[in-house]
Input
Amino acid sequence: FFQAEDGIRDVAVTGVQTCALPISVVFVGQENFVRDAKAGEIEALLALGLAAKNPRFRSMAWEADTVYEQWRDLNFGAWKAQLETAGASVVLAQFGQMEALDGVVRLPEFKAAYHRLLDQFAARTRRVVLVSPMPFEQPLASHAPDLTQRNGDVAAYANAVREIAKQRGAVFVDLFAPIALRKSATRLTEDGIHLTADGLRDVASLISRDLLSANVAPSAEHEALRAAIVQKNQLWFDCWRPANWSFVYGDRVNQMFGKSGGTEPSLKGAFERDRKSTRLNSSHGYISYAVFCLKK
Output
């Protein structure tokens, strides 16, 4: 999958084949992909396995995203624009676990919604990896519902994702079967849903093994890379999801906080100035630094 002309929009989409660029992988999904961006586990393994191709990774995963809706602030930008700005050549997506709580009755709606979302991705690239939902784990809290009773539904949704991948010529990564069959007593989640540090590590290993057809052995190089990735992803997060977005581009630009005052520009003016700057001592230094680093 990663052996073709990486970094190029599909010839079928553009009609033109240009010179090869480094792989640019964008992660799309729910809370566990957000957690992985903060841990750097999947990215570190893929970066080492694809080192010869000089890969680049950006996480666009968002808490509470589903195939039905990915809520964003006003003027945040549609998927096509977001993926083009990130230079995406591959989208690695995971959905289905939370949607499975609706039961198999919504499977047709799930598949239709997933196809619509993938159509939006296809405006940028048709090269997609679809990761299956993983099964729920028995929660530790005695008062918490036992979601393992819903794993039959999760299996049905995992099979639906497999079917979608086959229909679209996408790569499918199965997490459901290997996790359901694992014998280890080590827990993967803290509450039956959200991955722990051990869970993130194990899931990253499963995904990378499937995509690279090989294991990447842990090493000092791996840990150093992972630590750097965690820092990079924080910079990317601060740049891509600034906390004050609604005061800059959204529906609160006319509020006092967003307006200029005295010799100081409006928040939008400061934000735009800093996005174009590589200086580290601007009024929003974390944003400038993020842009500076991500351009390198």
Observations:
- The radius of gyration is 20 Å.
- Residues 220-240 form the longest helix (21 residues).
